[in-house]
Amino acid sequence: MRESLLTIPISEVLEPCEGCPICRMRDTLEERTVEYIMGAAMMEPDVRIETNKTGFCSVHFEQMLKCKNRLSLALMLQTHLDSVAGEVFTRKKLFEPRDKKKKRLSQINESCFVCDKVDWGLERLLRTLFEVYQSDRALFEKQEYFCLPHYDLLVSVAPQYLKGKELSDFEELCSSLVKEHIRSLYGDVSHFCNMYDYRNTGKDADWGNSKDSIERSIKFLTSRTPKNK
Hints:
The chain is mostly helical. Helix content is 68%, strand content 0%.
């Protein structure tokens, strides 16, 4: 599992030069982790112990549902629900502190097996990403943008790998990409709003690139493509 998480060539992430490359990295890690947990790993005792303890967040439950392997998911839910009932709602000791159960409940609500594995993989892949930056800055300059959450991640961890002018140059590069993308999004969203003016209606109305500007803005702000219902 660990080796497969790190077999994503950084070039696969950066060379498309469209969208946020860290989102692509995250998405690939998520896809591989979900496939792993919904496959044979579901029956591995050590994995089940971990999933019983951590559970999954709503985002990754949605991804697991898309795998169509409902039996695997049901089996994991069966033992996870039993674990929750036993740890939070069963009184094991006569004088067991109430705060202990409250703390455990908070841990369950805030934990996710897939999130943990993705964070683990991202931490190691970012180390390689900064090595690539040091050897090929031009490839970073070609990127379309970094979404806001991943821009925050990059500038937060950059001091671990870069120092001095190299660090300030990296922060300036990331900032310029993000600011330019915000400017572009703002223009498209403003154009979308203006198209609802009666003077801009009609069969020849030019919406330009504004029709999906709401979805693109949400993706930039959250790193996730919104689901239209």
